[in-house]
Amino acid sequence: MQNKQGTIDHLRTHQSYPATRADLIKECNDLADFSDTDKAWFVTHLSEGSYNSADEVIKALGI
């Protein structure tokens, strides 16, 4: 992932929680300011489940 800080910022300031993997992927795919490569990386690295905070998502992604 090239835009790690942008991803972290988005997860912390724009994403609503709780959110499922499907919710997060839909949101990710709708973002114009992230590359297709970063979007694909996000989908590949995010585990199934429900996330209660940005920190949980960040930890799951390992970023």
Can you describe this structure?
There is one protein chain. With about 60 residues, the chain is mainly alpha-helical. The chain has one domain. It contains four helices and two strands. The protein has helices at about 5-15, 20-30, 35-45, 55-60; strands at about 20, 50. Strands 1-2 form a two-stranded antiparallel sheet. About 15% of the residues are buried. The model has no long low-confidence stretch (mean pLDDT about 95).
Name the features.
two-stranded antiparallel sheet; 63 residues; single chain; mainly alpha
Biggest beta-sheet profile = 2 strands, antiparallel
Distance between the termini: 9 Å
The spatial strand order of the largest sheet comes to 1-2
Poorly predicted regions: none
Q: Number of DSSP strands?
A: 2
Helix content: 55-70%
Total number of helical segments? 4
Radius of gyration: 10 Å
User: How many discrete domains?
Assistant: 1
Write down the secondary-structure element order: HEHHEH
Instruction: Give the averaged pLDDT, no decimals.
Output: 93
Shape field = globular
Strand residues, percent: 5-15%
Strand pairing plus helix content: what structural class? mainly alpha
Strands, helices and their partners?
Elements: H1 4-13, E1 19-20, H2 21-29, H3 36-45, E2 50-51, H4 54-61
Antiparallel strand pairs: 1-2
In brief, what are we looking at here?
By secondary structure, the protein is mainly alpha-helical. The protein contains four helices and two strands, in the order αβααβα. This is DUF2795 domain-containing protein.
